[in-house]
């Protein structure tokens, strides 16, 4: 399945979910539980049928998290270098 097809399907499901929440705001307990079960089963079935799509999504999230961690390390390294340079120049220990 190509990315554009996956994106289109996700947009359709998002629209349906939003419609369901808006249309059933007054009847939340029973209707939303039925819809949650139905969409949960659909999501589980999709995950079973398309494990490669799920893996791509998980790997993408992991890479994004690693990117944030690497940026934090870079920032900390820059601060550490400045503190070390200041201590060396001003002879503070």
Note down, in words, how this protein is organized.
There is one protein chain. The protein folds into 2 domains: 1-49; 51-93. Helices cover 89% and strands 0% of the residues. The protein has 3 helices and no strands. The radius of gyration is 24 Å and the shape is elongated.
At a glance:
The chain is mainly α and 93 residues long. Helices cover 89% and strands 0% of the residues.
Percentage of residues in helical conformation = over 70%
The topology string of helices and strands comes to HHH
Mean pLDDT value: 77
Shape summary: elongated
Low-confidence stretches: none
Rg measurement, Å: 24 Å
Note the beta-strand portion.
Answer: under 5%
The number of strands is 0
Structural class: mainly alpha
Number of helical segments with 4 or more residues: 3
Calculate the terminal CA-CA distance, rounded to whole Å: 60 Å
In the residues, how many domains can be counted?
A: 2
Largest sheet: none
Topology of this structure?
Blueprint: H1 3-23, H2 28-49, H3 51-90
Main features:
single chain; 93 residues; mainly alpha; 2 domains; 89% helix
């Amino acid at each position: 399945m190509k990315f554009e097809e996956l994106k289109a399907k996700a947009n359709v499901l998002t629209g349906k979910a939003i419609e369901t929440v808006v249309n059933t705001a007054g009847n939340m307990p029973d209707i939303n539980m039925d819809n949650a079960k139905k969409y949960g089963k659909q999501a589980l079935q999709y995950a079973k049928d398309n494990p490669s799509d799920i893996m791509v999504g998980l790997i993408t999230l992991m890479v994004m998290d690693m990117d944030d961690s690497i940026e934090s390390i870079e920032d900390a390294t820059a601060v550490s270098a400045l503190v070390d340079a200041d201590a060396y120049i001003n002879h503070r220990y």
